[in-house]
Structures are given as C-alpha cells and as structure tokens.
C-alpha cells in the first residue's frame, strides 16, 4: 500500500475569500508579519500495491476530473514516503 | 411542454421550481438524481440548493450523478436546460457553461431582492423578456461569484452570451457584474438569482421572474 497526495490550490489570480479571512484574523490574535494566506485542499489517497507510472497517471486523471476544477484550481500529485 | 425538475440530495428549490413551471403554463415532471432517463421531457431545470452538501466544490459531485449524464447528452443535442444557483454551479462543473462560481468576495451569505438587466432575450429561457428589460428577483447565495479568465469574459461579451447582469449593486463579486450566461447555442442558461421565487404577488418581490418559465412556450409557438 502506498499513499499518494494531491494538493489543490486556487489559481493565483482567483480571489480566495477564506484565505483573506484567515489572514485578517492573524493580527487580531497578535501574529504579525504574515503578508498573505491562501487556503487549499489536501487529498490523501491510499492505493493498492506499488505506485507505478500508470497508477500515477490515473491519479492525475482523478485529480483533473474530480478533485480539482482546472478552471479555477491548480493541483500537484506526489507520492508520500512510506516512513 | 413537459419540463423536468431534478432533485439531488440537498436540493432545496425543486418544489418552488416545479410550481413556477406549472404557473408558467407547462407540465412539471419530477426527476431524481439517480434516474438514467429523462422521462421524455422537453426541457430540464436544475434548481437551487446544496446538492451533495456542496462537498468538494459546489456542483462537483452532482455533475457525476446518473441523471446528469442524460442532461449533458440532451443539452448537447439542443434541449433547453436552465440551471438556477446551485444548478448554475452544476452546469459550470459539467462544462456545459464556461467559468466557475466561487465564494462571495465579502464572505457572507447574501439574501436580497436583486435588480437584473436581461441583456440576451434570444435564449430558450429569456425570450419572454424585452432586450435590456430590468427585472427584480430574489438572490440568495454564498458561492455566487462568477469568475472566468479574461479571454472567456471577452468571448461571452463579444458573442452576447451574458444573459443577465446585476444592476445597482454587485452582490457577490462576480466579474463584470455577471448574473447569468448562456452557451453558444442559447439552449443552456445558468443564472445565480432565483426567478422561481418571483412568480406570484403573494410572496417575493413580484412576478418578474415568471418570464423564465413562460419563454419556452413562447419560443415554441413563435
């Protein structure tokens, strides 16, 4: 079994009101110096067997079809170390 | 005409949409998200609500429901499809309409009577209106901010595919005050505000939403 992680972020040009809300809360809590916050999503996929190139291509397809909306979001796929 | 109204788990406005269909002079047919056929309807309304709890992204799960496979195929053949609010989000996720709807820029849910300008009255759903007619209907959304890249916005404007635009106030941060758009053919319309809540004098801001539900008859007999 292996874990493949898909990270999804809004494209830089798309406004992220949730990130802005988090950023706005920081100074009120006494944390200074954070210039911007962007909020994204992380998906952890537990997959059967070895992560082959084919499996990875399939997960790219999953990310592009369902996990992310390529109109407004970018995604990255990486295999997480077994340790 | 028989107009199907789809109910997904989490849909809220299906009954109001069915009622608007009937008051508009058509027969309403209830369709279920798990259906594999459209029961011979002539047109489909995807109503508002929070289908599948808005999980993942609004409309992202609904897009893959069995009924949507049929709706997408029928829309591509020219069947009139109207997506209201969550229905608009589903149409964008299905790639029947370009762009996407994201969280309101001011981060709050908005519920108000909203003035719109109907800029394209050549679609299957807006032919009952005069061009540039101003109407007031209900608006209620948390993720109603329409976004698309510049090239897409230019294309929509250039081809006259902005169906409705917000007037007086932009309630959610939508680019270019866009409230509704159509596809190239004019049979698929997505609209963030709710015309089905403005069809009777008894409640809501009036009856100016009814045109969306009488247009089909008028375009058929025109």
UniProtKB/TrEMBL annotation, chain A:
It is an enzyme of class 6 (ligase). It comes from the Bacteria. Its main location: cytoplasm. Gene3D superfamilies: Phosphoribosylformylglycinamidine synthase subunit PurS. InterPro entries: PurS (IPR003850), PurS-like_sf (IPR036604). The keyword Cytoplasm applies. Its EC number is 6.3.5.3. The keyword Electron transport does not apply. Keywords: ATP-binding, Cytoplasm, Ligase, Nucleotide-binding, Purine biosynthesis. Part of the FGAM synthase complex composed of 1 PurL, 1 PurQ and 2 PurS subunits. Part of the phosphoribosylformylglycinamidine synthase complex involved in the purines biosynthetic pathway. Catalyzes the ATP-dependent conversion of formylglycinamide ribonucleotide (FGAR) and glutamine to yield formylglycinamidine ribonucleotide (FGAM) and glutamate. The FGAM synthase complex is composed of three subunits. PurQ produces an ammonia molecule by converting glutamine to glutamate. PurL transfers the ammonia molecule to FGAR to form FGAM in an ATP-dependent manner. Belongs to the PurS family. This is Phosphoribosylformylglycinamidine synthase subunit PurS. It comes from Nocardioides dubius. The lineage of its organism: Bacteria, Bacillati, Actinomycetota, Actinomycetes, Propionibacteriales. The gene is purS.
UniProtKB/TrEMBL annotation, chain B:
Pfam families: GATase_5. Pathway: Purine metabolism; IMP biosynthesis via de novo pathway; 5-amino-1-(5-phospho-D-ribosyl)imidazole from N(2)-formyl-N(1)-(5-phospho-D-ribosyl)glycinamide: step 1/2. PROSITE patterns: GATASE_TYPE_1. The keyword Nucleotide-binding applies. Keywords: ATP-binding, Cytoplasm, Glutamine amidotransferase, Hydrolase, Ligase, Nucleotide-binding, Purine biosynthesis. Its EC number is 6.3.5.3, 3.5.1.2. It is found in: Cytoplasm. It catalyses: N(2)-formyl-N(1)-(5-phospho-beta-D-ribosyl)glycinamide + L-glutamine + ATP + H2O = 2-formamido-N(1)-(5-O-phospho-beta-D-ribosyl)acetamidine + L-glutamate + ADP + phosphate + H(+); L-glutamine + H2O = L-glutamate + NH4(+). Gene3D superfamilies: 3.40.50.880. Its main location: cytoplasm. CDD domains: GATase1_FGAR_AT. The active site is at residues 85, 194, 196. SMART domains: GATase_5. Part of the FGAM synthase complex composed of 1 PurL, 1 PurQ and 2 PurS subunits. Part of the phosphoribosylformylglycinamidine synthase complex involved in the purines biosynthetic pathway. Catalyzes the ATP-dependent conversion of formylglycinamide ribonucleotide (FGAR) and glutamine to yield formylglycinamidine ribonucleotide (FGAM) and glutamate. The FGAM synthase complex is composed of three subunits. PurQ produces an ammonia molecule by converting glutamine to glutamate. PurL transfers the ammonia molecule to FGAR to form FGAM in an ATP-dependent manner. PANTHER family: PHOSPHORIBOSYLFORMYLGLYCINAMIDINE SYNTHASE SUBUNIT PURQ. NCBIfam families: FGAM_synth_I (TIGR01737), PRK03619.1 (NF002957). This is Phosphoribosylformylglycinamidine synthase subunit PurQ. It comes from Nocardioides dubius. The lineage of its organism: Bacteria, Bacillati, Actinomycetota, Actinomycetes, Propionibacteriales.
């Amino acid at each position: 079994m292996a874990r493949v992680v898909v990270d999804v972020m809004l494209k830089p040009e798309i406004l992220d009101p949730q990130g802005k809300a988090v950023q706005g809360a920081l100074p009120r809590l006494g944390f200074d110096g954070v210039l911007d916050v962007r909020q994204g999503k992380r998906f952890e996929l537990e997959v059967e067997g070895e992560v082959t190139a084919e499996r990875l291509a399939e997960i790219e397809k999953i990310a592009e079809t369902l996990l992310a909306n390529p109109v407004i979001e970018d995604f990255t796929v990486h295999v997480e170390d077994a340790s | 005409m028989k107009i199907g109204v789809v109910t997904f788990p989490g849909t809220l406005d299906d009954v109001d949409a069915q009622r608007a269909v009937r008051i508009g002079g058509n027969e309403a047919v209830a369709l279920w998200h798990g259906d594999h056929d459209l029961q011979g309807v002539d047109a489909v309304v995807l109503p508002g609500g929070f289908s599948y709890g808005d999980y993942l992204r609004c409309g992202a799960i609904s897009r893959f429901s069995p009924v949507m496979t049929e709706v997408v195929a029928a829309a591509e053949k020219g069947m009139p499809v109207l997506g209201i609010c969550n229905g608009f989000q589903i149409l964008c996720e299905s790639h029947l309409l370009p762009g996407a709807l994201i969280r309101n820029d001011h981060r709050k849910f908005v519920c108000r009577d909203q003035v719109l300008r109907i800029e394209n009255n050549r679609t299957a759903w807006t032919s009952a209106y005069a061009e540039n007619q101003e109407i007031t209907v209900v608006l209620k959304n948390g993720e109603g901010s329409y976004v698309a890249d510049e090239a897409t916005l230019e294309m929509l404007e250039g081809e006259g595919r902005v169906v409705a635009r917000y007037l007086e106030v932009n309630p959610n941060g939508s680019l270019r005050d866009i409230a509704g758009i159509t596809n190239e053919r004019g049979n698929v319309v997505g609209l963030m505000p709710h015309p089905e809540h403005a069809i009777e004098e008894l409640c809501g801001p009036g009856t100016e939403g009814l045109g969306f539900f009488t247009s089909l008859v008028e375009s058929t007999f025109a």
